[in-house]
Amino acid sequence: MVAYRQFRNSDPPHILRLWNESGLGRGAAQAVSCDEFDSLVIAQTYFDPAGMILAIADDQKVVGFVHAGFGADETKSHLSKKEGVICAVIVDKEYRRQGIGRELVRRAEEYLRQSGSEAIYAGGADPRDPFYCGLYGGSEPAGFLESDMAAAPFFTALHYLPVERHLVFQRSLGPGGPEVMCVRLLNAKRQSRLAAAAAYEPKDWWWSTRHGRLDSMHLGLLPKAGGSLMARVCVVGLDLYTTGWKVRAIGIRGLQVNEQQRRRGYGQLLLDEVCRRVREDMIQLAEAHTLETDLPAIAVLKSAGFQQVDAGVVYRKPAEPSSQSADD
Q: Which candidate, 23, 293, 297, places its Cα nearest to that of 162?
């Protein structure tokens, strides 16, 4: 017999045991400490114990959990409960195929609907990624990764439909990694230089409470002749992935190139310059994500020596047909 209850303060060690033993794939940080889990998940000001539901076996062993939450509103200063998201669901390998995962999701959906959600998603991705930034997905949450092989068949069986696909790219920075060079890149390099871009760090609450909890810096390209930034990115430390990936890595996110500077090699140059800079700090791998539909971003990443290694999928629960009254 399995019982279900909401989160208690004594639960993180049991949750982390499930996390480390359940085969979540390359995109899940491993050997995470309780302090790190607390900082990135439990300590969030909007963490609601009722949104984390645990499955407990007869011997009081925690055999599964689901965690549901909400994204940000348009101002990115408050939660918006109109759209709920199932951020994580894990069941102990020895207790799978017993309906525990299905029941956990059902209870999570009930929690989200009672909180006011009109749409329910599975898999966190901006702007619906309240938890696990820095713990799952790599450089940023991107739904449930395809390398997390249990996710797709599980949510498909629950009749969730894929609505977004995010591509995961990586570039090796170690010996034998790609060297990028072309005439357009040389021209861009002659006209610009890499510089800190701290002034462009997002100031909104939503960024600060998620990515702001990680080591990060903003870098950009300045024209050598003077002027404003031509392109910029955020670089995020991925030290929590070192145990699983066996290398030190950084994530590159939020690449932006000024409209008047596009198609002139500045995006490619900025990615390459960032990779060269962090290599001096013994970083061996760089990762970046983009939507499958963002063809210009994909082209820039490939031109800078990045190769696709994974993909993440966001699913959505189909709306249930409204029941008609007896008078209809």
A: 293
Map tokens 């013994």 to a residue. Answer: 282
* Pairing mode, strands 249-257 and 285-291: parallel
Residue, of 325 and 231, whose pLDDT is higher: 231
Count of beta carbons in the 10 Å neighbourhood of residue 256? 15
**CA torsion angle for 109, 47, 26, 296 (degrees, to 10)?**
80
In DSSP terms, which residues pair with 223 in a beta bridge? 192
pLDDT class for 321, splitting at 50, 70, 90? Answer: low
For 289-293, the CB contacts below 8 A with 24+ separation are 289/137, 289/138, 289/139, 289/140, 289/142, 289/166, 289/167, 289/168, 289/169, 289/253, 290/166, 290/167, 290/169, 291/164, 291/165, 291/166, 291/167, 292/164, 292/165, 292/166, 292/167
Pairing outcome for strands 119-122 and 62-72: unpaired
Per-residue pLDDT tens for 187-207? 777 888 888 887 777 778 999
Task: Compute the chain's Rg from CA coordinates.
Answer: 21
Domains of the chain listed by start with CATH number: 3-163 (3.40.630.30), 170-314 (3.40.630.30)
Nearest to 236 by CA among 140, 118, 141, 146: 140
The model's pTM: 0.91
